[in-house]
Design a protein that fits this description.
It is a single chain. This protein has 764 residues and is an alpha+beta fold. The chain folds into three domains: 4-58 and 635-762, Four Helix Bundle (Hemerythrin (Met), subunit A); 75-216, Roll (Ubiquitin-like (UB roll)); 229-620, Creatine Kinase, Chain A, domain 2, CATH 3.30.590.10. Helices cover 47% and strands 12% of the residues. It contains 24 helices and 20 strands. Strands 12, 13, 14, 15, 16, 17, 18, 19 and 20 form a nine-stranded mixed beta sheet that branches. A hairpin with a 4-residue loop joins β6 and β7. It is globular and about 100 Å long.
Length: 764
């Protein structure tokens, strides 16, 4: 007897055996197995599906109102920021804190005690009972360990400066990439005063970095802060070639967060969504996004209520969310904030995702941040809108009406393009994850090929600048160069169309890094981007200085270096369709990389050039880079492994048994028709089709399991990750899915165990 499917079925299902033999069914050679619901505790996946649909039909809306008439009346009310520090600290203490934050200086113990006392009083007055160091380990999310203000030994609420500045979480339970042994537990979180404390629930949250006992960084924030300092120093140095009043440059970020929303009951009835964050099976619905009617359409009622409430909670936390709308795919949406300093913007994005998930639960909804939760539909990105702002209020990527200022703009514009050209492989690596691999190059996501889109007007400006030979310098601020630069003031913010297929696009006064994944921590991509720009700005300054040492006038020296950069980086600029096959061929001719999977993309981190780059600017040591690479490879392996297990579980324990049950019904029908002398060829053909798909699924899963056993024996993490990618994911996932999705079209809808795409995407 072939009982493989039965033996692997979950114990929660009760199977009754019929003594009736069905010899013509090769999958039920002895018994006709069928499921029956014996009592309410025993149910099939199909029953769960319809029960979930019933619950959804009974949902009501949750009314949401603003707590006060104006948002300005409660914005940042749960934030202990500079205004609160100014109001609660002595002027001398506040001056110390302000100076330390501005100049990236250490805060002394006395000042820390004063800040801790003020923060405790503020938090307790708002009902807080605990505090936590809120940090971002290399898990892709955030972490926190709550401690009570109440000291039982003293019998009072206490919060010392030392507790504000430093805590000691268990570092052994977080990824370290081999930096720490599992039995070595000590690690430290250290206060980041540049990001404000906030009250979340009844807990005072203190943004911190996370380091090992021996000082190596174990989080996403630490290298980001160092990269931001590097770009500040380098950009300020270049700015002072133009304006000595510029003494500080701040990197700003506005991350557009895309996401899907599905009903909570439907979500819970899909084990793949619960375990992997995405659907591993699911036939495309008759209607997807082809009608192009969801984008910017009317927001569904329950989703609208959810949006209103999470926006209110975000505003209370000082997160400047402003824009909400439907995205391209059904059930896909977007929220976009105003620009903030990169470190704060990233903290806010991490907090935003948590707030959204918690509020969604109240509305019986689930938010999906996975980059590709539904096959064949638009994926989920996190477009990072990035720019550099001087302390004098100048956006260095905004053209102006001044020819002199536009030379400053051109300097940063061209140098950034040059940086992307030089380090395209590192940028690609910075957005490489198992989930993002599904998204890149599909359904309005940018391709894996790194390129820069600048638009027709800026292309014309750079082309003209490149072609100029000897440049005559004239006196005066407005007409000191005959370079065609006088064209730039005519550019308005939106003079150039946007290019959705470009991973790195200039959009009028900023660059938009579109390739960042929806569930990613922006810190990884922002660390890489700010670092490569800082390095290229240093090289630009050195090149200009070398020209000037030869006797070249400063402005002409700047132009000469820019012309050189324009020529050298032309290959990275592309104005066309990034989805086209022609671009793939053209990119190869230009020598641009097209690395389509994470294990191979991550190799860029370990190149000699990248290692030297990180160490040169003090962002990461060789050891730390290697450790982080190991962590990301391990994360890739685990995610593919989980998905493979989910595929196997659903296929063998739910899909095949369901198909067999339905097949048996057809066999009865075929035998009945034959007994009546009626032609049963169509039914028999369907039975054969089902058998073929069952064979394909069963064999695919069995082969995949055996391949996993082999791959798991590979000791080298890099080789194991490649094997998981090429020998498991690429070899079996689509093959098994294809057979399952075809079965979905054959099996009776009432028997199908998984909530279907049409239900997940269109029922809310």
């Amino acid at each position: 007897m072939d009982s493989f499917w039965f033996e692997t079925a979950p114990a929660t299902h009760l199977y009754i055996f019929s003594e009736r033999r069905v010899p013509k069914n090769p999958y039920c050679t002895k018994f006709d197995y069928f499921w029956r619901q014996i009592d309410q505790k025993t149910t099939t996946m199909a029953h769960l599906r319809f029960e979930a649909l019933k619950k959804l039909n009974e949902r009501g809306r949750v009314p949401v109102d603003l707590p006060k008439p104006l948002i300005s009346q409660f914005f940042a009310e749960n934030v202990f920021g500079m205004e609160q520090l100014r109001a609660t600290l002595a002027p001398a203490i506040f001056k110390k804190v302000s100076s330390a934050i501005k100049n990236h200086e250490k805060i002394d113990d006395t000042t820390a005690d004063a800040v801790a006392s003020a923060a405790k009083s503020w938090a307790i007055a708002k009902g807080a009972s605990h505090f936590t160091h809120w940090f971002q380990p290399m898990t892709g999310g955030t972490a926190e360990k709550h401690d009570s203000f109440f000291d039982a030994l003293s019998g009072i609420e206490k919060f010392k400066g030392s507790e504000l500045v430093q805590q000691e979480p268990d570092a052994s339970s977080f990824p370290s990439g081999g930096i720490r042994s599992t039995f070595e537990a000590r690690g430290y979180t250290a206060w980041d005063p540049t990001s404000p404390m906030f009250l979340y629930g009844k807990t005072l949250c203190i943004p911190t970095i996370f380091v090992s006992y021996t000082g190596e960084t174990l989080d996403a924030k630490s290298p980001l802060l160092k990269a931001l300092k590097a770009v500040d120093v380098s950009a300020t140095r270049v700015c002072q070639l133009f304006d000595k009043d510029i003494n500080h440059v701040t990197a700003s970020l506005g991350p557009e967060q895309e996401y899907f929303v599905v009903d909570k009951a439907l979500f819970m009835a899909r084990p793949d969504l619960v375990m992997a964050g995405k659907t591993v099976f699911g036939h495309a619905p008759a209607r997807g996004q082809q009608m192009e009617d969801h984008y910017f359409g009317s927001i569904p009622g329950r989703v609208y209520d959810f949006m209103k409430e999470f926006e209110i909670e975000c505003w209370k936390l000082g997160i400047p969310v402003r824009t909400r709308h439907n995205e391209v795919a059904p059930s896909q949406f977007e929220v976009a904030p105003l620009f903030e300093e990169v470190n704060v913007a990233n903290d806010h994005n991490q907090l935003l995702m948590d707030v959204m998930s918690r509020v969604a639960d109240k509305h019986e909804l689930k938010v999906l941040f996975h980059e590709k939760p539904f096959a064949g539909l638009n994926g989920t990105g996190k477009h990072n809108n990035w720019s550099l702002i001087t302390n004098t209020g100048v956006n260095l990527y905004a053209p102006t009406s001044s020819a002199r200022d536009n030379l400053l703009f051109l300097t940063f514009f061209v140098t950034t393009i040059k940086a992307v050209h030089e380090h395209a492989d590192l940028l690609r690596a910075s957005i490489a994850t198992a989930a993002n691999d599904f998204r890149l190059g599909a359904n309005e996501a940018p391709p894996a090929i790194m390129s820069v889109f600048i638009g027709s007007q800026m292309t014309a400006v750079l082309d003209e600048l490149e072609k100029k030979g000897n440049v005559k310098i004239e006196k005066g601020d407005n007409m000191y160069m005959k370079l065609g630069i006088d064209q730039i003031p005519e550019i308005i913010l939106d003079a150039t169309d946007r290019n959705r297929t470009s991973p790195f696009a200039f959009t009028g006064n900023k660059f938009e890094f579109r390739a960042v994944g929806g569930s990613d921590n922006c810190a990884t991509a922002m660390t890489a981007l700010n670092l490569i720009v800082a390095d290229q700005l240093d090289k630009f300054h050195d090149s200009v200085a070398a020209e000037m040492e030869k006797g070249t006038e400063k402005r002409l020296a700047i132009v000469n270096v820019l012309r050189k950069y324009i020529k050298e980086s032309k290959a990275i600029r592309f104005e066309g369709d990034g989805y086209s096959d022609e671009w793939v061929k053209e990119a190869a001719k230009r020598g641009l990389g097209n690395v389509k999977n994470t294990p191979r993309a991550l190799d860029a981190y370990l190149s000699k050039r990248s290692l030297e780059l990180f160490e040169k600017h003090g962002v990461l040591s060789h050891k730390e880079v290697e450790a982080r690479n190991e962590i990301r490879l391990e994360a890739y392996i685990k995610r593919v492994q989980i998905e493979a297990r989910v595929i196997g579980d659903l296929a063998m324990n739910h899909i095949i048994p369901t198909a067999i049950v339905y097949q048996n019904k057809l066999i009865e029908n075929a035998n009945g028709l034959k007994g009546l002398g009626v032609d049963n060829k169509t039914v028999v053909q369907t039975i054969k089709e089902i058998s073929g798909h069952i064979d394909a699924i069963k064999n695919g899963v069995r082969e995949m399991i055996e391949e996993r056993k082999r791959v798991n024996k590979i000791t080298d993490t890099h080789k194991r990750a490649i094997a998981y990618c090429e020998d498991i994911k690429e070899a079996y996932f689509d093959k098994i899915r294809d057979a399952v999705d075809k079965l979905e079209l054959l099996v009776d809808d009432e028997d199908w165990p998984l909530v279907k795409y049409r239900e997940l995407l269109f029922l809310r």
